[in-house]
Amino acid sequence: MTTPRRSLVIKSTSGTDRPEAANQALTVAAAGVAAGVEVSLWLTGESAWFGVPGRAADLVLEHAAAAPDLIEAVLEGGTVTVCTQCAARRGIGPDDVLPGVRIAGAAVFVEESLAEGAQALVY
């Protein structure tokens, strides 16, 4: 019997309004990629802005890795998704996001979160 491959689905619900929670989500996602885990990072609520070029730089937190670097690390080895409804509420369209960032909805999040071997975390 083979053990299913583990994956990590991380939902960030905070942006610059809660910098520690937002940075924690990005840090854990980047650490997961560095560890070789399949990572899917979901940017919801105010964190949806981090999927737009230049906006992650607005997240400044002392003693923390730079948010743009963390998102770049996740994009290099994982998936970054902006929530469909969150994007629509903010006027963010497919042409507005960073290369490699997708916009998808709750059905995709649920599918990823319920996949065999998946661990979902919400920040």
List its traits.
123 residues; Hypothetical Protein Ychn, Chain: A; five-stranded parallel sheet; 4 helices
Describe this structure in words.
By secondary structure, the protein is an alpha/beta fold. It is 33% helix and 21% strand. The chain is built from four helices and five strands, in the order βαβαβαβαβ. The chain has a five-stranded parallel sheet. α1 packs parallel to α2. It is globular and about 45 Å long. InterPro entries: DsrEFH-like, Sulphur_relay_DsrE/F-like. It comes from Cellulomonas cellasea DSM 20118. Pfam families: DsrE. This is DsrE family protein.
Question: How would the blueprint of this fold be written?
Answer:
Layout: E1 7-12, H1 19-34, E2 38-43, H2 67-77, E3 79-83, H3 84-89, E4 101-104, H4 106-113, E5 118-122
Parallel strand pairs: 1-2, 1-5, 2-3, 3-4
Helix pairs in contact: 1-2
Summary, kept brief:
The chain is 33% helix and 21% strand. The chain contains 4 helices and 5 strands, in the order βαβαβαβαβ. α1 links the parallel β1 (7-12) and β2.
Q: Would you tell me the overall average pLDDT?
A: 96
Approximately how much helix is present in the residues?
Answer: 25-40%
CATH architecture call: 3-Layer(aba) Sandwich
Question: What would CATH call the class?
Answer: Alpha Beta
The total domain count is 1
Strand content: 15-25%
What is the alpha-carbon Rg in Å?
Answer: 14 Å
